[in-house]
Amino acid sequence: xxxxxxxxxxxxxxxxxxxxxxxxxxxxxxxxxxxxxxxxxxxxxxxxxxxxxxxxxxxxxxxxxxxxxxxxxxxxxxxxxxxxxxxxxxxxxxxxxxxxxxxxxxxxxxxxxxxxxxxxxxxxxxxxxxxxxxxxxxxxxxxxxxxxxxxxxxxxxxxxxxxxxxxxxxxxxxxxxxxxxxxxxxxxxxxxxxxxxxxxxxxxxxxxxxxxxxxxxxxxxxxxxxxxxxxxxxxxxxxxxxxxxxxxxxxxxxxxxxxxxxxxxxxxxxxxxxxxxxxxxxxxxxxxxxxxx
Amino acid sequence: xxxxxxxxxxxxxxxxxxxxxxxxxxxxxxxxxxxxxxxxxxxxxxxxxxxxxxxxxxxxxxxxxxxxxxxxxxxxxxxxxxxxxxxxxxxxxxxxxxxxxxxxxxxxxxxxxxxxxxxxxxxxxxxxxxxxxxxxxxxxxxxxxxxxxxxxxxxxxxxxxxxxxxxxxxxxxxxxxxxxxxxxxxxxxxxxxxxxxxxxxxxxxxxxxxxxxxxxxxxxxxxxxxxxxxxxxxxxxxxxxxxxxxxxxxxxxxxxxxxxxxxxxxxxxxxxxxxxxxxxxxxxxxxxxx
Amino acid sequence: xxxxxxxxxxxxxxxxxxxxxxxxxxxxxxxxxxxxxxxxxxxxxxxxxxxxxxxxxxxxxxxxxxxxxxxxxxxxxxxxxxxxxxxxxxxxxxxxxxxxxxxxxxxxxxxxxxxxxxxxxxxxxxxxxxxxxxxxxxxxxxxxxxxxxxxxxxxxxxxxxxxxxxxxxxxxxxxxxxxxxxxxxxxxxxxxxxxxxxxxxxxxxxxxxxxxxxxxxxxxxxxxxxxxxxxxxxxxxxxxxxxxxxxxxxxxxxxxxxxxxxxxxxxxxxxxxxxxxxxxxxxxxxxxxxxxxxxxxxxxxxxxxxxxxxxxxxxxxxxxxxxxxxxxxxxxxxxxxxxxxxxxxxxxxxxxxxxxxxxxxxxxxxxxxxxxxxxxxxxxxxxxxxxxxxxxxxxxxxxxxxx
Lengths: 293, 290, 403
What we know:
The complex is a heterotrimer. Chain A is mainly alpha-helical. Helices cover 74% and strands 1% of the residues of chain A. Chain A is built from 13 helices and two strands. Chain C is built from 13 helices and 14 strands. Chain C is globular and about 65 Å long.
């Protein structure tokens, strides 16, 4: 059973990993109504925090977690402070996050501190105390814990006063302001929270794949991955990102082995199915289930 | 750390490169300005257009500049159909869904190209690909000079359409006030599809001007998307003059930035401008204050 | 192939339903020895990935036609194809699938970043992983017992390049003193440029500028302007095919003719495709890169077969993968077993010399083949010829280049 569980284990880990990214993005976009196209900026910060602190300063891997959380939140607060102070909304906000991600990517590519274009390897040091596990099961528990944390945050956003403010801001910012909600602070909190959780994803990536470079850390690939799952699963819902991650993984795995002698066909199928999915499930999976209920 | 003697040629290079960027941004700004769609498939559409120009030259011997008469209508048709029967339908008008749809389309197009045309990088060889024109101390490649004038011409054509034709008026109406336009009897879906078509038609022209100085492969579009977005924002979403000026400006910034900071770090200038414009003047250079 | 697709389909659809129903015993069934062939055949690395896959598949076909693995009763090799989609995480996921499919070994994954992930994933199951290209030295410096690289890494390539440059310069009476390095910004380009810029001054060359550029770079006019302004004796490019081609073409266009364009792992420099399409710009270009032993008839025979194929070129991706699969086959022969551990041991002790690369018999230390070396080629009269070292040279180098 070990052989087959390796594949399933990896698949499960990747689903949860995607779900984590989606949960983070969902905080800001689903609950907060602020779409970001550059969530990689937080992911990369977390990933580099983990890699640099270990490689250059000899920190223990677990110790980098709180550092990554803090940095993710800080970057979030920075971008949020600038963007919201100047009233950026909608696609303007989305585009500015994209720009920030690119700025960080270019910087990471050009400073020695991050290894520049060469990237950074996290040294192979198997052992749970190093946040590296000889078998994948350890990673599964960690990512599960992270996802649970994300779900707890989501639940809190659905049921707390802060969450109510946030959703009010999402639904109608001006009305919320008129009702006395401190819109700026609320949005700032959301982006910091979202950034922190996303940074967690970055740390996990660094520990699981043990190599990052500016493209992997800050590139558009991660930003896109973060927004696919919540939209497919159901924006602004608790379980949406998780369901979306499952669905996307099935879609990806399901198409990948097909037509292997004709490169590109399987991805065409993937793209087409993506379009079809959103055509027939405009509010995501949960939206569909809700309508049927 | 740069020599003044290469500043002038660098400026000219920036202007000519920027002109090509502008061509790509012209279509995007229309699509964004009217439909409020951030078209993730723009790069893939450019790539398909480039393949179109390539194969027209290879199988029919059509010079890329002559191919404009084929590519523009072809891309227009593709854009119209894509919007009418795919994007418009699939997205139900929701912003986040349009995102996903254009993303999905981009994946389909890129891999369709991979499947049909294989992954080889292709270039065309024309009599003028290697010709340079001396402008003062600088030697500028001829295809790029042609592209410069091509961008101006295309912007001019677009402005004329928008100002003088009924369609142009309808497009402007739909962009400003969707519901209102519907109320006065404008077939909004049709106008949107036309706009998307025109947007893609611009890419058809862009491809004709770009290919002689560049190349095509299935992933070539990705390198232009971010820059195109920057220019759209800088120039003002929906403004053609803005896209043209913005494109030239970005081209120059990229050029001079790379002289000053190095080719790799110099790219940062583009995005810093992007951020600055978004923060301090989101309507861009030529856009109307929202 | 039908069985594989069906098996893939089964795995795919029950992926998340943890089940004991997954067919496990396939590994030991039948005569076929499964070999994972993992490359980025989609995404931005698709061109190299597809050529790599071609080389591997040709090798598997040839081995099977010649009677398969004789020590195992003529057992045939069966390719289990994988697409890394130009992403390390997908590469790692494909390794999991291949493990599930019961592969005895994996060959791949072309790009260094992907190789780092795939060798690591394979190490967890001790699947022998022959690295086809992946020039980053980190790949063989992590102490993974399952990883074997047949070809040289970029340190060896950079060192060889510098030694040959000194030799070349000395032979011509030392006409060259100044150098400009133009490199792509990611791992291979930066790593190579760092090594060169550190070492070259000690060898008597002045590195006037190191110009880094992005992937992709849309326009090289500015870089060429800077090169022109510095007017170095030698320009050293280290980048991928598209950028290399654009750069060299732009230099030609702007009439920049240094004493030599001396590439180190130049993306298009020793590429028959580049020479065919841009012979004007290509002629004279020097390159220290992966190359086959030009004195070995088998290489030319293979080249002939590849040239006969539509739109294919005999590139290093093809013959490095071809060789990697043969290396594996030799190891399986000697191991007399399809068990992963046995193959790993056989590879570790490999002294295989029935290849057409200029490496001599294989000798792996920490996974790196010690004899691996690049050769120096020059494009002369629209053809690529080896010019150094003398043992493999087909002709004399032409330096300085007169344009």
